[in-house]
Design goal:
78 residues, alpha+beta, four-stranded antiparallel β-sheet, 2 helices, 4 strands
């Protein structure tokens, strides 16, 4: 799973930081990155039967880490 998360984070990430995956379980990680659109935060997760990635442009890493669990929970319960 670490390799999948690493590939999903892509875009020459900085330090990869673990994130609480929340009540849906799995593994989640975030990293600050530099891309064509400038500074960004990238968060990815792998669950038992799903995976996903958020790319936050102009959002701090700490805010992206905080919001990842919330948005993931909303997406998976829809």
């Amino acid at each position: 799973m670490d390799r999948l998360l690493s590939d999903m984070l892509g875009t020459a990430p900085g330090e990869v930081r673990p994130v609480d995956a929340g009540p849906l379980g799995g593994i989640a990680q975030c990293s600050a990155a530099q891309g064509a659109l400038g500074a960004m935060s990238v968060c990815a997760w792998v669950g038992d039967d799903n995976f996903g990635k958020f790319v936050w442009i102009g959002v701090s890493l700490s805010d992206a880490m905080r919001d990842t669990v919330t948005i993931r929970s909303q997406l998976e319960s829809a």
